[in-house]
Design goal:
With about 325 residues, the chain is α/β, with parallel strands linked by helices. It contains 13 helices and 11 strands. It folds into 2 domains: about 250 residues, Glycoside hydrolase/deacetylase (TIM Barrel, Alpha-Beta Barrel), CATH 3.20.20; about 60 residues, no CATH class. Strands 1, 4, 5, 6, 7, 10 and 11 form a 7-stranded mixed beta sheet that branches. It has a two-stranded parallel ribbon with strand order 2-3. A two-stranded parallel ribbon has the order 8-9. The protein binds zinc ion (ZN).
Amino acid sequence: MKWPTYRTLAKRAESLGLNRLVRLVGSWRGLLVLTYHRIGDADQCEFDRGVYSTDEASFAEQMAFVRSHFEVVSIDDVVRRPAADWKKRQAVLITFDDGYIDNYEIAFPILKRLEIPALFFVTSGFIDQRSISWWDEIAWMVRKQYAGASDEEVDDAIVEIVENYYEIPEAECEAYLNRVGDDAQTGRYSDASPVWMTWEMLREMAASGMSFGGHTVSHPILTRTRSGNWEHELTEGRRRLEEELSVDVQVFSYPVGNPDCFSADLKQQTARHYRAAFSCYGGVNQGRGAGNWDRFDLRRWPVYGPMRQFHMTTTWPQLLN
Ligand SMILES: [Zn+2]
């Protein structure tokens, strides 16, 4: 007989109502960090729909769920609490990456109403330059190229081209985007990107208790960037946030955040400027090992999918890597 995998077990647990029971007792202890990118109606978006974590109604439901089942913490709690403090807690930290405008328009009112002190990792150059991200630009070009094709075909093409982009060295990125624009007969996207928050919005969020973390100036995958550029990306992004928002920026998240998007060298350099840094490939920071947490690879879960998926993630984060 073949034993079912943990993943299968977790899915069955949800359908049998076992997750509800487990939540009463708690299957994990420690710090679970959830990551969101965009919130809203992806179907209306002419840019990358793959970065939508969920829609407004589900986000409100998820935040209410987190509020009633776990201890919601701020980044100050994470940075200041001693390791022994995490042993018995079921703490959740809500984070957002990049600086999308729906974070302000949709998520912020919900967070404020529920008094959830979320942490926003903001790419300073997106706010300053209003420049388009590579993934949004690829999606825009391909969507125009395949106008009339099914959503599924277009999304598949976008995923393939974005995934190829991940693999190429930084020096070839511009040529690659030029080629995609030529193939699509759209050329490159030349307008200011309408998808980013403004400094004014971010200041309002800061005044309401939201926190901010560094997420570079231009959102490169740092391990594919010359290490000579790391210092600028690490420090200038932070400097702009502190200057515009009058806040203390203590933490950083690696762009994309997969295990191959940071290295031992990068972690060391990051540690010279920040008190902690977050990855984004799943897992939970286990309470019993809190004394040994790698503070420059604090684990986060990117949130996607329906509410059932959210229940599984928050009930069994240690199993679903
Ligand atoms: Zn990012």
